[in-house]
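Thread title: Can someone regenerate the structure for this chain?

I was given the following input by a collaborator and told the matching structure tokens would be attached. They weren't. Posting the sequence so someone can regenerate them.
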Amino acid sequence: MRAEDLLPDHLDHTRIDGVLVRKGSVGAFLANARVWSDGDADARAQAERHIVEALPALRALGLFEVLEIRDPRLRVLVARLG
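Best answer:
Regenerated them for you:
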């Protein structure tokens, strides 16, 4: 499967199991994970809010069923948020 098979170029979102998944969700999670791991307190807090908002979409995609988060603190945060 290619990216455009999952989400064609003319669309910017889809629904998976009733959850809205926007194009760029995984990329945004990765960027926020880097900031959360390395940023100052304010940037980290904002990144955490964005991570929390994205979790339903990331779970609908099955991201955490295939990939494991290497940062132990971030792994605990994501697991704690259910």
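The chain has a mean pLDDT of 94.
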